[in-house]
Amino acid sequence: MQRLSKQCLSIIQTRPQNSHKGTFGRTVLVGGNAQFGGAIMMSAEACVNAGSGLTTVMTDPSNHPALHARMPEAMTVDWNDKELCDSVLDSADVILIGPGLGEDKKSQDLLSYIFQKQKEDQLLVIDGSAITLFAKGNEQLPYPTQTIFTPHQMEWQRLSGVKIADQTEENNQKEQKKLQATIVLKSHHTEIYSNQGRFQNPLGNPGMATGGTGDTLAGIISGFLAQFPDTVDATNAAVYLHSYIADQLAHDNYVVLPTKISQALPYWMKKFEH
Ligand SMILES: NC(=O)C1=CN([C@@H]2O[C@H](COP(=O)(O)OP(=O)(O)OC[C@H]3O[C@@H](n4cnc5c(N)ncnc54)[C@H](O)[C@@H]3O)[C@@H](O)[C@H]2O)[C@@H](O)CC1
Ligand SMILES: Nc1ncnc2c1ncn2[C@@H]1O[C@H](COP(=O)(O)OP(=O)(O)O)[C@@H](O)[C@H]1O
Ligand SMILES: [Mg+2]
């Protein structure tokens, strides 16, 4: 397994003068039921700060005022308004579904709807409850090689059937090959399994063991996929930078608040800009 290094951040290039919002991608984030609104808000805060050109959050309307108050840069769509959802999804480069989605019938219907809508040239990131729902269901991935799962070890156990204690490189790789999707297996040393190789993140700290850290990573991955052309390079860079920033914050903070990682993204991306 190849260890990630600062080298993976070389994809963060100086932006061309002649550019506009569309140059840096359109991302649509689907999640945040009434109970878990914070999850999709953290994904949105991460996605915007990661540099996504345009970020739209498709969520329960109860979250709209709080999201506008916290992150006016993100646009909101009522996930019950199918006509508006159709048009927003049609122009997306990257779709993220799962943070705070929940696991009820409505959540399942939303996952099926996104599967129906995904186009061949769109990337789909599946996180949180959407992983659990997909694992329980019997739907097929529309475009496996356009899909990135971001499970923690328990979500991976549900998805792959491999118990946490048996999640070895060999077993994980076998299951990734079956799925053909890219897998970001989150832990104290996150691993990335893909058709282009296997990578290990050497960074990270226990201050990250708090609700929202994974929602935040999903937002950064989505924002990077919207900007940078290679899926695995963008995913690796997002995983590495998410932990790198958390390690900096952990010098002076006992717990690393996920939103502090997001707020520090523009500063560190500027530092690593090539
Ligand atoms: N502020 C919010 O609104 C938050 C919402 N969240 C959402 O809550 C939903 C459920 O996600 P959860 O992950 O909390 O719940 P899950 O039920 O998916 O998994 C967490 C459970 O698995 C157990 N577990 C065992 N080993 C584990 C491991 N190695 N890593 C992680 N968990 C392990 C944990 O103890 C916990 O009981 C998701 O949609 C998620 O996005 C969470 O992200 C937390 C923050
Ligand atoms: N002890 C740890 N050391 C390093 N990273 C950790 C540790 N515990 C959790 N993390 C990181 O925190 C995140 C947890 O993801 P997840 O459980 O999905 O969080 P969320 O509550 O946002 O759903 C992952 O990126 C994981 O790598
Ligand atoms: Mg999670």
TrEMBL record:
(6S)-NADPHX binds at residues 39, 100, 152, 215. It catalyses: (6S)-NADHX + ADP = AMP + phosphate + NADH + H(+); (6S)-NADPHX + ADP = AMP + phosphate + NADPH + H(+). The keyword Nucleotide-binding applies. It comes from the Bacteria. PROSITE patterns: YJEF_C_1, YJEF_C_2, YJEF_C_3. It is an enzyme of class 4 (lyase). Its cofactor is Mg(2+). Residues 4-272 form the YjeF C-terminal domain. AMP binds at residues 186-190, 214. Its EC number is 4.2.1.136. One of its GO terms (biological process) is metabolite repair. The keyword ATP-binding applies. Keywords: ATP-binding, Kinase, Lyase, NAD, NADP, Nucleotide-binding, Transferase. GO terms for molecular function: ADP-dependent NAD(P)H-hydrate dehydratase activity; ATP binding; kinase activity; NAD(P)HX epimerase activity. It holds the Pfam family Carb_kinase. Catalyzes the dehydration of the S-form of NAD(P)HX at the expense of ADP, which is converted to AMP. Together with NAD(P)HX epimerase, which catalyzes the epimerization of the S- and R-forms, the enzyme allows the repair of both epimers of NAD(P)HX, a damaged form of NAD(P)H that is a result of enzymatic or heat-dependent hydration. Homotetramer. HAMAP family: NADHX_dehydratase. NCBIfam families: yjeF_cterm. Belongs to the NnrD/CARKD family. This is ADP-dependent (S)-NAD(P)H-hydrate dehydratase.
